[in-house]
Amino acid sequence: MNGALVAVSAAAGAILGIPLELLVEKVPGRVLLATADPSDDPTTDPTTDPTGDPVGVLDAQGGADLGDEPAEDSGSDPAGPVTAGTGGPRVMLYRMLLLSLVTALFLAGAAVRFGPHLELAAYDLLILGLVTMSAVDLERMIIPVRLLYPTAAVFAAVLLAVAGVDGRWNDFWVAAATAAACFAVFLAIHLIVPAGMGFGDVRLAGLLGGAAGWISPKVAAVGFVVAFGLGAVIGVALMVFRGYGGKSRVPFAPFLVAGALVAFQWGRPIAHFWLHTG
Asked: From CA 178, how far away is CA 208, in angstroms rounded?
């Protein structure tokens, strides 16, 4: 392990994590109606937004849906719309420090995992995007394509360069195939249970599947198993300790990202333990 590389990566993460707060604040939030109590309206369905479209839920089994685009205001509330996810200066400072710490830890972990190789740059850039998207999803219940698409494009471009320089074309095509397979699986879930899996999750799953597939398709499988496991545990905990109902809305992107980061770091040994194969 290159200690200097890890230290530099951690310091860079601490610095780069600070302006991520600005990106989080610039993403528009989901528009909600300012009703006193939605349950007072018998026509209100907790699984739909003001336009009647399905919104994100996390049930006790860990399934989740993320509205990936802001909902439009129906204009029916005389008090006017309010945007979810806005916080005061204290919240912003807390989140800025948290983003800095989390980014530092993740970039340091990437340095340990990949070492002084070009692919480290790809995963560093990916991590910056994933941390930002997770923060946005926690704050606003959306996975913005304005963050996801550039992150995916830059990541794929750097991996393409790595494949060309190091002759790792097989790894590149395996990663592409894994990304397509993960996208297809999540798309099927979305089509079967649209209220349980948002299309934002589908797109993110494709990106994470490709990133883990570069290491190994088994690593990708580990990441998604961990993600759904975490989702199930947190879902049950929220129901027990916070009184959340079976249709309470909880963002799923942080679980997907957490599962992927665990897989990047320890996916191979976990897969070996589970499957008794290398």
From this structure: 9
Q: How many domains does the chain have?
A: 1
Instruction: Give the span between the Cα atoms of 99 and 17, in whole angstroms.
Output: 5
pLDDT in tens, 123-165: 999 999 999 999 999 888 899 999 999 999 999 999 999 999 9
Exposed e or buried b per residue across 91-125, where buried means at least 16 C-beta atoms within 10 angstroms of its C-beta: eeeebbeebbebbbbbbbbbbebbeeeebbbbbbb
Identify which of 235, 4, 190 has the alpha carbon closest to the alpha carbon of residue 108.
4
pLDDT tens, residue by residue, 57-106: 343 333 443 334 443 333 333 333 334 445 556 668 888 999 999 999 99
Domain assignment of residue 221, given as a range: 3-275
CA-based nearest residue to 67, from 132, 151, 140, 146? 140
Tokens of 254: 């942080």
Which residue has 């739909």 as its token pair? 48
58 pairs with which residues across the strands? 64
CA–CA separation, 47 and 38 (whole Å) = 12
CB-based contacts of 95: which residues, under 8 Å, 6+ apart?
Answer: 21, 24, 87, 135, 139
**Rounded distance between C-alpha atoms, residue 248 and residue 238, angstroms:** 9
The pair of three-digit structure tokens given for residue 166, joined into one six-digit string = 């190091």
239 burial type by CB count under 10 A (0-12 exposed, 13-18 middle, 19+ buried)? middle
